[in-house]
Amino acid sequence: MINKTLAPPTERVIEEERLTPARGTLWRRLRKSPSAMLGLGIVLVFMGVGLLADWIAPYDPLRPDFGRAREGPSWDSPLGRDELGRDILSRIIHGARISLWIGFIAVAIGVVLGVPLGAISGYYGRLDIFVQRVVDIMLAFPGLLLAIVLISILGVGLSNVMVAVGVASIPTYARLVRGSVLSLREMDYVAAAKALGMSDGRIIFRHILPNCLAPIIVQSTLQVATAILFAAGLGYLGLGAKPPMPEWGVMLSTGRDYLRDWPHIATFPGLAIMLSVLGFNLLGDGLRDVLDPRLRGKL
Amino acid sequence: MLSYIARRLLLTIPTLLGVTFLVFAVVRLQPGDPALEIAGQGATEEVLRAIRQELGLDRPFLTQYVDFMEKLLRFDLGKSLKTKEPVAPKVWGRFLNTLELALAAMAVAVTIGFIAGIISAVRPYSIWDNISMVGALFGVSMPVFWQGLMLMLIFSLWLQQAIGWGFPATGRGTLLNLVLPAITLGTSSAAIIARMVRSTMLEILRQEYILTAQAKGASPMSVIFKHALRNALIPVVTVVGLAFGGLLSGAVLTENVFAWPGIGRLIVEEGILTRDYPIVQGAILLVALGFVIVNLLVDVLYAYIDPRIRYD
Amino acid sequence: MHRYFLLGAVLVAAFLIPVTDTGGQQQVKIGGKLVVAQGTDAESVDPINFSASPTASIMEHIIQTLVRLDVEDRGGQLETTPKGVLAESWSVSPDGRVWTFNLRRGIKFHDGTDLDASVVKLSLERALHPDCAAPFRSAVLGRLAYSPASATTGTVADKNAIVWRANLLLGPEGNNVSVAIASGASLGVSVSGSAITVTAPAGTTAAAVIRAVNENAAANKLVWASNAPGSDGSGAVAPVTATRLSGFATSVEAPDANTVRITLASPFAPLLQHLAHTAATIVSAKRVREAIAAAPPCGKGLQDKVEGTGPFMLKEWRRGERMVLVKNPNYWERDAAGRQLPYLDEIEWRVIPDDAARMIELERGTVHIAVRVPPLDVPRLQRDPNIVLDFTTSVRTIYIGMNVRDRIPDTPTGAANPLADRRVRQALNYCVDKEAIVRTIMGGQARVSDAPIVPQVFGYAKVGPYPFDPARAAALLREAGVTLPLRLKMHHPRGRYVRDVQVAQAVQAMLGTCRIEVELIPMEFVSFLALINKAPSEAEHQLYLLGWGTITLDADYGLYSLFHSSQWPPGPFNRGYYKNDRVDALLQQGREEANPDRRKAIYAEAQRLIWEDAPWIFSHSESQITGIRRNVKGADVHVTERLILWQTWMD
């Protein structure tokens, strides 16, 4: 994370005090946590599946076979067939790409725009007033409602879902980071850095934001899940990804109509969502434990 | 403290102005022609033009906004395009219903979230920690519309078939009607709160003053509740405040599943799906205002819990 | 959710299990409270302010029409007969233009006032008034109004007069068009035939007249002449367009207290079918008159309360939640055994938008009747001993319309349209396996279309179906010289019709096997309607999935609006811009012909021609499935997607 040899001596003192782990130790520590490794494993598997979808999916995910509609699991189709007779396994494999994509883009939008906004707002008392007004205005619209309204303007479609869900999460990040920064900037080491004449940008990015990472990571792991769930909720309301796209949320909400009599149609996409969410959370928890210096050595 | 609150209130004014403008602009950006929606499929261009004129839709954007604000100050949110009745009382009634559901869900979320979070933090990596965190994972990863249906099946239909009594499945009325939707809606917030309580408490429990307190022989209970919890509240209050927004979001879906006559359903059913923009506008505005007030309370709470903040 | 527009929805009772046995000898139990669950709430209880069938279903228990359509099964063939409700009897003049209705005597509204012809006239005229913009005004009641033309062209006759050639249909009392101009201006108005002449005093110019008319139009809402290019008063003037003439006249008269007379401009055979629509219900005049006086011409505040003559009275309405109706103790109608109707004390209509939740409430028994059972829930519910399912075939036809213009959009620069070729359109029909759609997606609860309308509609003739024949489709495409793959766009609504998204996906997949690659564009219904409601020169749509319910149960309503070339958008419903001169002539003939047998022949010929031209992919007609608890007897599902519960009782 931080290249110690290049850091000026004064700064190194401060870093020693914060006990930030060096790059090499991150992986070592992560490896010691079985749950984090499990999470990482799940995330990697899903990413691999998503990337290789075209090669590993046994069937065309969009091709219906009306004669086999709603057929249960079999050797031929391990997860069964959906309401149009499409192979559910193939759809889940292709859906991995879509769902992870939704999660990543949405979180990226939220982090890239929300975190700096929150940091600036928390750090500069003067700017806080203005930035907080902007954040307050955005925050005044609860996430899914904001997404619904955005979708109704942008139109139904996957990329619009990503944008809507991402934009909806900006204020969450901004608010969260601001809250942490507000307390952190009162910390002695920040005061010390200021006294040493360090620039604000440096203080924010080197000394304050790394200490906000724990909540940002916790939030992001949940946010990937939230993004996938928002997409699903939008699908339930008829505002999500376009059919016949094998988006997990839409598959789940469609399958829900058949839940009572053909539970496999909804169950497998549901499990896929849960498993991916689980993976992100485990990984995020593990990273948090490793990254947070105050928990170091306690593992 | 009072001056802080006064300042905070003052700051709410530009926010509110921004919110009204955003709502107004966003609603006008929607595709579709409200005049066509009023007049129905068979309307002639002449009728459409007359309707646009009557509603002022043919006037400049800013003129419409000024007009809108003028009316808003008199609590006039306009009339529904479809039913032509005033929007304000309708939206208000539905908002109260949603608030009822959201508060019940919040109670569920805070209770479960704090209990699970504290247990986890006090005994990290224990079986209890694992159970509550895995529970939290399930809580956040279950889509509301799916979970609601499962709860309804189990506690309403199957319970009824098994013992002759089950929770009411849909509608609003008695307190019992509130149980299933409040749990459905509160679960994901509970999970988020639990995780946040856990991670914050874990950090704090490792702080020196806690170690000192422990070394001095303070009882575990007193350490947790007197020393740790209060400091853990700052980020948690943020999350609870934000969770309220999550609750209002989830309310759209929950209300639909449980046929709860709230504002979320109003927005989707009578607003967006039928392009009745005064309803969308009024409802979103009210939700936004409610949320602004919640955020204000959160900020005040901050200042109360962490006195450093109010001296800025 | 929001799926129930009556415009699209009508169903005919075809019971598998006879649950509607309310014969006079049968024992009935009086009293009790029935709970009904629908997916959407009523929009309002004002008949000028509703568009969806769940609203109509409730309203018809409170307010009533002059006639209603009874559906009877005559040896497998369903026939509809108009039966008098508020009208005891009626007669038609030999030329088919003058209809006279004799009202039932001694009927009181819920507020204690008496029913008389003036009340009927008031209700109908309110529904007809253009300013009230009732959703069904033109489609259902249009024939009753002498409506001003949509845009009329005026010419300046001399320096101070303008003549509008308005194709006003003259009413029996002459035309009551007037132009009221604010005080000070003294414009004369005279109406002669179809011409309206506005005269200004000597000395003023035509331009001044136009200006005066325009300025005062806003205030008086009478005449609004919009553009007058070059009207400088010199006399040589470009045509003046009056965009809004609201000289409003209806054909409804009340010659005495118990007689209502309707005089039509031309014969219109299915008039009774139109008067049976909920849009033509009669409401107590007491509050309506006050409301109109306060806010002419439509009145305000009539959304939440209504007083009618029906078997139930509105007691409580909590929006989005429930509406409670209580028995009208003074209801005029009796059953076959002479018992006072209705049997029930109370009906509670609950709103449960989620399909699964609605079924759970039905299975729990907390709801007695649940509408719109999802087709694939049928096998499970049929196993439930406490539930009886009511199957009702539908007159709602689902089709994929095709834009048949030569170019899209239809301008010289528009793209060439392969669908302009009839062979291509037929190929699409051969390529879609309608049987598979009905079997898998609709769970068998639908019917493959074999005509543009369904058998329950008067005038239906079986002319299809197009068999599933990909080889034939390929041959036709080859013959038409189409380059494959052919790429087309298909717009479709989601959640509007039963399993509409799945139907669209299935059609897409099936056409794919014929190397016709379809891009699906799902849309929210209202935007979708706006998209396809365009003049051909602006239209972008190629394929569009839509439904149409012939709610009057007469072929005129099911064919004229959809296939007559005068019915191109914007406004009307011929959204593929289909035009066939022979079909046009037949459809015009059909609405003026009084003899039922001749009408049937006319419509059979029209349907045959339409079928060959294939302006649609003819898909299927929906079914309505209603779940009813076994202890509920005598619940009837009417053809127009309405529940009829005044002869219902509970064991």
Describe the protein's architecture and organization.
Chain A is 72% helix and 0% strand. By secondary structure, chain A is mainly α. Chain A has one domain: MetI-like (MetI-like fold, Orthogonal Bundle), CATH 1.10.3720.10. The longest helix of chain A has 37 residues, at 200-236. Chain A starts with 8 loop residues before the first helix and ends in an 8-residue tail after the last helix. Chain B is mainly alpha-helical and 312 residues long. Helices cover 78% and strands 0% of the residues of chain B. The model of chain B has no long low-confidence stretch (mean pLDDT 80). Chain C has 16 helices and 32 strands. In chain C, helix 9 (422-431) packs antiparallel against helix 11 (470-479) and helix 14 (555-563) packs antiparallel against helix 15 (581-592). In chain C, strands 1, 2, 17, 18, 19, 20, 21, 24, 25, 26, 27 and 28 form a twelve-stranded mixed sheet that branches. The interface between A and B is large, with 58 and 65 residues.
Present the secondary structure layout.
The complex is a heterotrimer of chains A (299), B (312) and C (651).
Chain A: H1 9-18, H2 23-32, H3 34-51, H4 53-56, H5 88-123, H6 125-139, H7 143-154, H8 158-184, H9 188-195, H10 200-236, H11 248-256, H12 264-291
Helix pairs in contact in A: 3-5, 3-12, 5-6, 5-8, 5-10, 5-12, 6-8, 7-8, 8-10, 9-10, 10-11, 10-12, 11-12
Chain B: H1 2-28, H2 34-39, H3 45-55, H4 61-73, H5 87-122, H6 127-141, H7 144-163, H8 176-205, H9 208-215, H10 220-258, H11 263-272, H12 277-305
Helix pairs in contact in B: 1-12, 5-6, 5-8, 5-10, 5-12, 6-8, 7-8, 7-10, 8-10, 9-10, 10-11, 10-12, 11-12
Chain C: E1 11-13, E2 33-38, H1 53-59, E3 67-74, E4 77-84, E5 87-92, E6 98-103, H2 117-128, H3 137-141, E7 145-146, E8 152-158, E9 161-165, E10 188-192, E11 195-199, H4 206-220, E12 223-227, E13 240-245, E14 249-250, E15 252-256, E16 259-263, H5 271-275, H6 285-294, E17 312-318, E18 322-327, E19 346-351, H7 355-364, E20 369-370, H8 378-383, E21 387-402, E22 407-408, E23 415-416, H9 422-431, H10 434-441, E24 446-448, H11 470-479, E25 486-493, H12 500-513, E26 516-523, H13 525-532, E27 543-549, H14 555-563, H15 581-592, H16 596-613, E28 616-629, E29 632-633, E30 636-638, E31 642-644, E32 649-650
Parallel strand pairs in C: 2-19, 2-20, 25-26, 25-27
Antiparallel strand pairs in C: 1-21, 3-4, 5-6, 6-16, 7-14, 8-9, 8-13, 9-11, 10-11, 12-13, 15-16, 17-18, 18-19, 20-28, 21-27, 21-28, 22-23, 24-28, 29-32, 30-31
Helix pairs in contact in C: 9-11, 14-15, 15-16
